[in-house]
Amino acid sequence: MKTSFLAFLITLLFLNFAQGQTITGQVKDAKTGEGLPFVNIGIIGRAVGTVSSDAGSYRINLSNHVADSLKFSMIGYRSQVFAVKELVNQQGALNISLAPEIKQLNEVKVTNRKWKTAILGNTTKSQGTTAGFDNNALGHEIGAIIKIKRSPTWLKQFNASIVENVITDSVKMRLNIYSVKDGMPDQNILNQNIFVTVHKGDKAININLEPYNVMVEDKFFISLEWIQSARGHGIMFSASLLSSAIIARETSQAAWEKVGIAGVGFNVLAEY
Fold it and tell me: Could you tell me if 41 and 152 lie in one domain?
C-alpha cells in the first residue's frame, strides 16, 4: 500500500513538473491588441520551436532548456527575447505583445536601362526526385540559394512544382527571402510577410512578388516555411541532382543545414 502511494506521488510530482515546463498563451499586436497569426517562437540556437495559430495562440514545451532563451519574432514587428528560467514557473498564460516596426522600403529607380527577364533557379518538374515537407512540423523551412545575372535584380514571381500533395484540405505557408553570407542564409530582406495557401490537389505554387517590391543585389536564399497545422502528411516538391543543395532548418531559431544531395525546384521570374 505504501509502495503504491509512493509511486502515485512520484507520478503526480513528475506530471506537475512537466506541466510547469510547458507554457501557453497568445501573441498580440501591441498597437491593436489583436492576436498575431504565425509568429515564430523558438529557443535560440536550438531545434525547438513552434508558430502561433491564426488567432495568435501558442504552446511550447521548454523542458531541459532552463539555461536558454526564448525568442518571439515576426517580420514587421520588434522581436522579444526571454530567459527560459524566468518563464518555467509562470502561473497562467504568458501573453506577449509585439510592437510594429517600420522598415525602409526599397527605392524604385527609373532609368534608361534596357531591362531583361529570366527564370533564375531550379526549374525542374521531376516526378521521380522530390524534396519537401514530410510531416506537419510548425516552423520547418526549406529552400535554395539562387544566383543573379546582374545587380540590381527585381523578383517578379516565385514558382515551385508540387509532386506529392497529401494534405486533406489546405495549409498556409510563408515565403521568406534572405541575404547570403558564407554560403548560408543570413538576414531576411522582406518588409512584410508573404503568405500562400496550398489546397488539396494543387500541382504548383506560383506567387506574384511584384506587390512586395523585392530587389536583390547579389545571390539570395528563398524558402518556404510550414506555418499552419494541417491534416495529412505533407507536401513534396520536384527536385533534381547536380544542382544547389537544399538548405533547411527545423525551427526559426535553429541552425541552417545543408540536406541531401538534391536541390529543390524553386525558381523565380526576375527582371535585371
Answer: no
Give bridge partners of residue 178 from the DSSP assignment.
Answer: 188, 221
Q: Based on the structure, what is the number of domains in the chain?
A: 2
**42 pairs with which residues across the strands?**
49, 71
Q: 3-class secondary structure for 31-57? A: CCCCECCCCEEEECCCCCEEECCCCCE
**Shared-domain flag, residues 92 and 123:** no
Q: Residue 12 pLDDT more than 60?
A: no
Range of the domain at 189: 117-271
Q: What's the pLDDT score for residue 107? A: 63
Q: Are residues 148 and 70 in the same domain?
A: no
- Cα-based distances in Å from 206 to 102, 157, 259: 27, 7, 24
pLDDT value at position 234? 87
Query: Could you read off the pLDDT of 248-263 as tens digits, one per residue?
Result: 999 999 999 999 889 9
Other beta carbons within 10 angstroms of residue 89's beta carbon come to 9
Which residue did the predictor score with more confidence, 20 or 167?
167
Q: Closest Cα to residue 225, out of 162, 139, 136, 137? A: 139
**Structure-derived torsion over alpha carbons of residues 26, 178, 256, 162, reported in degrees to the nearest 10:** 90
d(CA 87, CA 69): 10
Among 98, 127, 151, the domain boundary falls at 98
170, containing H or E segment: strand 170-181
**Predicted confidence band at 17 (pLDDT cuts at 50, 70, 90)?**
very low
**Pairing relation of β-strands 96-98 and 22-29?**
parallel
- Average pLDDT for residues 202-222, to the nearest whole number? 98
Tell me the three cell numbers of residue 204. 504548383
The pLDDT tens digits of the residues spanning 168-190 come to 789 999 999 999 999 999 999 99
